[in-house]
Amino acid sequence: MRKLILTLSAISLFIQVWAQNNFSFVGAGKEIDPYHYTVVKRAEFKQAAVSSAHPLASMVGAAIMKRGGNAFDAAIATQLVLAVVYPVAGNIGGGGFLLARKPNGELIGIDYREAAPEKASRDMYLDKAGNAQMNLSQSGHLASGIPGTIAGLFATLPYAKLKIEQLIQPAIDIATIGYVLTEKEAASLNGIRDAITKFSTQPTAFVRTEKWKVGDTLVQKELAATLERIKQNGARGFYEGKTAELIIAEMQRGNGIISINDLKNYTAKLRKPINFKYRNHEIISFAPPSSGGILLAQMLKMIEKYPVSKFGFQTTKSVQLMIEAERRAYADRAEHLGDPDYWKVPVKTLTSDAYIAKRMSDYDPNKASVSSNIKAGDIKESEETTHLSVADAQGNMVSVTTTLNGPFGSKTVVGGAGFLLNNEMDDFSVKPGVANMYGAIGGEANAIQPGKRMLSSMTPTLVLKDNKPYVVIGTPGGTTIPTSVYQAIVNIIDHDMNVGDAIDKPKFHHQWFPDNVTIEQDFNPETKKELEKMGYKFVERKNGWCKIEGIRILPNKRKETAADRRGDDSVAGF
Ligand code: DON
Predict the structure, then answer these.
(1) Whether the CB of 137 sits within 6 Å of ligand 1
(2) Where are the extended beta strands (E) located within 22-127?
(3) What distances in angstroms separate CA 57 from CA 50, 390, 538, one per listed residue?
(4) d(CA 454, CA 158)
(5) Mean pLDDT across the chain
(6) Does ligand 1 have an atom closer than 6 angstroms to the CB of 114?
(7) Can you give the pLDDT at residue 381?
(8) Confidence (pTM)
(9) d(Cα 564, Cα 506) in Å, to the nearest integer?
């Protein structure tokens, strides 16, 4: 009997070790089957959790943690799978920000934002008459900044436990055998078909003779080969050698300006996160070149002295106050924020209590301020992106927002390499006062310069309560990102909501200019009516915006995990 028990436990131990070491878990009928998967919106997990824009990406992240990886491993593997199954925004040809906290309290901010090529110049998008040609900053070869994602993933690797070979294999497998399209994915590929054909110089996997329909399989052989080169040669498999040559050849065929030196010299940078208190919680978010952390700090601190919880969820009082904070913070964004390596960003002043109090000194709770009267503060001191939230059993929290900028970026697929390039150059201020694709305006602080990183709104965020991990959150959505993270945090802290409710509630957005409030269709009609009487103008956006991914860590360390109701976003964990 004893012998039998010993044999059985040896077998079970063997199976456990084998499962942990077996990284070929993707395939037809395997643990993760790219031909059969379902969306899971909300779940509570005992140990580790991932929320991302695609079920396969979240499942791979969770499987990696099950095999001994931590939240950093999961974040790397999840991003690589998103580059395969979520081409609208998941990417290796774009850039992003990773924000993390380790169990010892160490904060990590990795900036792998794209940078302007060495041949870029301040007026590169102006015609002879000085008019901005936004078509050039938004589509095609000239729209791309130097991609940062692969450098970012390799800058993350020292915090991870597994090898890149293990973390990249699921993405290679899915690109090789293909994955089944959901209805939304088929529609989005059909919608972008003409643009990809126009802006790419060679045939791509995304365009075929017949239209895509739900249930079709998308195979990406060239992308698989590019990922294989990265697996073999590390970041040099992207920035040098064959992949780099393919990028340069694509640039030459399409009159782009990214050079071999641009690729070789690109590096990810560490940034000290923005860190502040809001109602006894510690909020950690991303520093410039993202505007997200500063906007979030300004908006939350502007409303902190008001009893928002007593005002109630989306009542006239609470929404009016929150809009006025949004208006003032975005005025500062336009004037003061840019890449800190090229522009002195007055971070301390912008987020100081005295400055915030002064910014709200002309706030009138009974009527709408007028944006043309609100200037940026005087400082004396010198649709598509994607987010993933990960938390593991050891207490690591990782929050990543990554992007090609617009849906499918520049719409240029690198011939022979199978991936889309970003159109991030449009996030620069192409001409002072001229709005970019998100309606954002800017000036000198965000003017184009070779090597400079364009100002972002991406706001990967962490919240601590009683100095312990509490919330991992973030979202895509261009300039609506900071206001969406802001509202979700207020929903959790002031209105005591669980993370799923907090992210699914209708949203409102004001960004200084245009001077109106954008609302989702299901926004409270009574509040809207009352605010109209006070002078607010509303624009209703038919499709919702910002697909937020959140995890809230409960006192018993269980992970309350939610993926936004607005897409195929999905959670996984164990
Ligand atoms: O960095 C930024 O702010 C933009 N490039 C983000 C774009 C975005 O979120 C589009 N998503 N819907």
Answers:
(1) no
(2) 42-45, 49-52, 95-101, 107-112
(3) 9, 12, 36
(4) 26
(5) 95
(6) no
(7) 45
(8) 0.95
(9) 11
